Amino acid sequence: MASMTTTNSTTATEDAAPDVDAVPELELADADILDAMRHIPGYLDITTADFRIIYHLAHAHAVARLFHGLTAGRLMRTGITGLPPATPLGAAARSFVEQGVKTLPVIDPDGRVLGVLTETDVLRQLGADSFLELLLQLLEGDGTLGDRGQDTATSAMMTTPAVTVTEQAGLREIMTAFRRHAGRGMPVVDAQGRCSGLLLRKDFLTACHLDESQ
Known about the structure:
Elements: E1 2-3, H1 30-38, H2 48-67, H3 72-75, E2 81-82, H4 89-99, E3 103-107, E4 113-118, H5 119-125, H6 131-140, H7 154-157, E5 165-166, H8 171-179, E6 185-189, E7 195-200, H9 201-207
Parallel strand pairs: 5-6
Antiparallel strand pairs: 1-2, 3-4, 6-7
């Protein structure tokens, strides 16, 4: 297995301004505003148009506060060991376990991303859609994997082309990239296109103060 070029995540641009439009505002009807105003004690000398202006400014301020400096480079996990394309299934699975991830980049000798190998890709090669299904197959069989292509090269199993983001990618770019695939992570690349880390979906959602059900 090849060790990819790594970058300390704190070197990414920390002052990157968030894209306010990446978090859409709610469309407020007059009825929504008037109902809210009825719950505020005292007399309010404000129109619904004024209220919308306040909401717009407050929304922009909140986005800037919550997502200031959020970049893939800051959120990514570094020190991840990528997989050469010739890595057999068994060794790839062992690498998943040792590194505690379910997605790994497949890289060339220069560290450039060729594809991504996921836990789902490995299960598919073993003829199962989930670990429970694989366990059931083992229990109902002879307890071994048999001839399921354990020596299959990573290049034959990987998902390609890989969805990647740059270290400077901000909120909108990261959201767009994750919407393009259902994986739990994706490679982060530097200016030369070399893999410098792995951005996990759960780490991104945590940074956005969300959970995976949202």
